[in-house]
Amino acid sequence: MSTSSRLTIGIDLVTTHAVVAWARTAAAQTPEVFPVPQWVARGEVGERPLLPSFLYAPVAEEAQSDPWQDSPWIIGEHARRRGREVPGRLVASAKSWLCHAAVDRTAAILPWGTEDASDVPRVSPVEASERLLRHLKKAWDQARPEHPLDRQQVILTVPASFDQAARELTLEAARQAGLTVRLLEEPQAAFYDAMQRIGSAELGRLAERCGGRASVVVCDVGGGTSDFTLIQLARTRDDVLRVTRTAVGRHLLLGGDNMDLALAHLCEPRLAGSSERLGPQRFAQLVAACRAAKERLLGPEPPAQIPVAVAGTGSALVGATLRTELGRDEVQQVVLEGFFAPAARDSKPGRQRSGLVGFGLPYERDPAITRHLASFLTRHAPETKTPDALLLNGGVFRSKSVVRRLVEVVGSWGDQAPEVLAELDPDLAVARGAVTFGLAVSGHGITIGGGAPHGYYVGLEAQQGGRAATERRAICVVPRGAKEGERHVARAHPLALRVGRAVRFDLFASDTGKAHAPGEIVQLDEDRFHRLPPVTMSFDSETTEQSGEVGVALEGELSAIGTLELACVETEPGQREPRHYRLAFELRAAQSNAVGAVSSENGPTPRPSERARMARGRLDAAHEAIDRVFGKRRQDVKTRETKDLVRELERLLGPRHSWTTDVTRGLFDAVLSGRKARRRSPDHERVFWMIAGFCLRPGFGHPRDRERIASLAPLFREGLSFGQESRGWQQFFIAWRRVAAGLSEATQAEIRAKLDPFLAPSESKLKKPKGFKPLAPEELLELASWLERVPAERRGLLGRWILERTWTDRDPRLWSAIGRLGARVPIYASVHHVVPPRTVERWLDHLLREKWNEMPSAAAAALQLARVTDDRARDVSPAVREEVAKRLEQVGARAEWIEAVRELVPVAATERADLYGEDLPVGLRLLEPEENEE
């Protein structure tokens, strides 16, 4: 297709709707909006400028033709309307779930909170986005077959604050839909639309009125996120307008969805009574109804009030319909005083939550967008009291009262109120601006400069040349302000890359302070640097001519499609071209990975080279000790050597708790290579599982751990060769419990299938597998309770079996197991594996009847079962939580436990580590849920 006939397409995939705009690439055209065909009512197709971003699963009697192959879903206007009428069958806010690192965003988890709806299909956040894009593609191709969408220049917009993982997931959704796209930040797209409509001359006059330079804050409040972008306008000496993006705010999961939630919380007591709560499905229906009411009540010429109804449960809408009303004044009160509240210039976001909760998304604790805006300016423009102008984008700014309030608040920070740039069409501006951007990069218009708003850094070992382990350092790879397509090489400091195996890099970003040069080493601190998902690389050693280590330099580039690309480049290739080793982001969630520094030794600190030789010698001796026991049979190996192998390793390497991840994984590799030798004797088998489990714990945290787990997993099926040895079974189950966090859902389900016949009540019809006769029942039970990736219904079934045992068995370990099975916050798994709250409430009912002063595990189990998550699909009822809190007070439980049952208290890193029940390898840091990436 020639350039003259090619089109530039802008797609705005908003939390609440999608928009497509277009223009011919070879001309400076005004973008046009493509009317998207969709179901607008049952049996009725219509074209609309907006495609609502909702997926509805129709019940059987609603079956109809499917021109866009959306089945088993309906997408668009009819889906949004029908989803308000039938609870539990609507997927909404899929885009917001792409940023939620505590769930597996590639798993079929949506609709959220509908675990009892067996007839409802499920999709992952990535698939939901892909289906929306695929509908747009098919609709476009049917309407414009001469210009198929996959052959045009397509610009897809994303929130400016989307991290690299969310951007990569967005690109993956586009690829699955058959599209190759370039990403553009939504606030920039909105400003491109403003430039196209206002014109460079008028923007130049704005700069002149402000002394030749004007600052503009783009405030983009969407359905799921709020983005702030700072743009500078300046006139050059040759009278050319220069537009520069100077700062981007951090990710704020705060927007129209939160306003809908606040209104739903306002209406809920009127519908269900002051002491009752709606279930997750009906509450989601209430949120959808409040969204529709809000849009009308904040729009032009709103009525005084609008009825809000929540239908009964079930596909046939059986049950009483609950009704109330939302008034215009109370909606404005909630939105203005909660989300656009008066705020001082030096104010910071608070810690309170106010009407934001209800689902599993990690919304901002403080709903006041004004305080977040003040904090953004303090961080990025501390010398500026108030910006010269505001560009407001988002449906909420259709309300004149909201615009007036925001201008008043920002104006109170300085001597005069900021100008408000010409009003945008909040639904269409971003898609049209994406087209304007595409035309600009093709030579038809002004482009926004400024480059990358963040600098990117790769972490170095915390201890080098005797530095303290707390002094973390990093090397700059891509500087702040870097331009797209501009490759940067960090050559100032030589680096060594291990070949023939995976290698891990900790990645950091900074948006403030000095712009460092590539290769510059900086001291990390939490205020200026934030951790990104780790970057890993794996390549086949058979394709590499060398083995061991290769000297490399780090290279980085912001790609033309809007993602960060990193690579290691060989520095001494000889006569051939240097090899490039690309580093890839890990995108699946719910596994905490982080490897830190090597621990320091006691006593005088030797020189680095001397220390390395000493460590290498000790490791070589440790590997030799393992080889003597698990290598080829040797006549000089005494029986005692096998029994004392662990003690010998500690003599050589120091106490086990001091072994680093590199040391433990090296020992695991050595013992795994001799796995067949475990069948030589009961001692060989017991010691094998003792070392393997300890050295691979917790199953993640090192680059090759997936490969190691894959090699170890088949050994569970083989069981023990010396099955009469209870100590062997004990170490076997302990080992699998230690590595459970690294096991896939399929492997965990396979393990449970073998264990369940030994855990089920005697009347159960489960057949015990042949050749598998385990001993050590306590360790078997603990392993089963640690398997968090088993589907929630099977974990609930195990909890029921254990609960029956508590009626006659007073073993505290039973309640510890129930606490793990019903925990509201998983230790390592995605939160979609959590057992439903109604099941856990039955367990708590029994636990509350126990004498806690006689049951040492009761309080800790109650904390895990009743902890607040602010997710309606996981939290037990407020009445049950309050009863648990009172019992914790009666037994003198720790104050932080009681607080965590009454209000949201994030699980601290130390607490997460404690939950593992033993020390983790030195250098392994458990990330918080928002950091978790597998």
Structure, described:
This protein is an alpha+beta fold. Among the domains are: 13-19 and 31-153 and 160-179, no CATH class; 455-585, no CATH class; 590-790; 792-866 and 868-904. The strands form 7 sheets. Strands 1, 2, 3, 6, 10 and 11 form a 6-stranded mixed sheet that branches. Strand 12 and strand 13 form a beta hairpin. The model is unreliable at 314-318, 463-470, 539-547, 587-609 and 927-934 (pLDDT under 50).
What is the 3D shape?
globular
Oligomer: single chain
Spatial extent as radius of gyration = 30 Å
β content, as a range? Answer: 15-25%
Q: Could you list some keywords that capture this structure?
A:
934 residues; alpha+beta; six-stranded mixed sheet; disordered C terminus
How would you sum up this structure in a few lines?
This protein is of the alpha+beta class.
List the helices and strands and how they pair.
Blueprint: E1 7-13, E2 17-24, E3 32-33, E4 36-41, E5 44-48, E6 51-52, E7 55-56, E8 74-75, H1 77-85, E9 90-91, H2 94-97, H3 125-143, E10 153-158, H4 164-176, E11 181-185, H5 186-198, H6 200-209, E12 213-221, E13 226-235, E14 241-248, H7 256-272, H8 280-297, E15 305-310, E16 322-327, H9 328-339, H10 369-380, E17 389-393, H11 400-411, E18 419-420, H12 429-441, E19 455-459, E20 473-478, E21 488-499, E22 503-505, E23 507-510, E24 521-523, E25 530-531, E26 535-537, E27 548-558, E28 564-570, E29 580-585, H13 608-630, H14 639-643, H15 645-653, H16 661-673, H17 682-696, H18 705-712, H19 714-718, H20 726-738, H21 745-759, H22 777-786, H23 792-806, H24 812-821, H25 837-847, H26 858-866, H27 878-890, H28 895-902, H29 909-915
Parallel strand pairs: 1-10, 10-11, 12-17, 17-18
Antiparallel strand pairs: 1-2, 2-3, 2-6, 4-5, 7-8, 7-9, 12-13, 13-14, 15-16, 19-20, 19-23, 20-24, 21-27, 22-26, 23-25, 26-29, 27-28, 28-29
Helix pairs in contact: 1-8, 3-4, 5-12, 7-8, 13-15, 13-16, 16-17, 17-20, 20-22, 21-22, 22-24, 23-24, 23-25, 24-26, 25-26, 26-27, 27-28
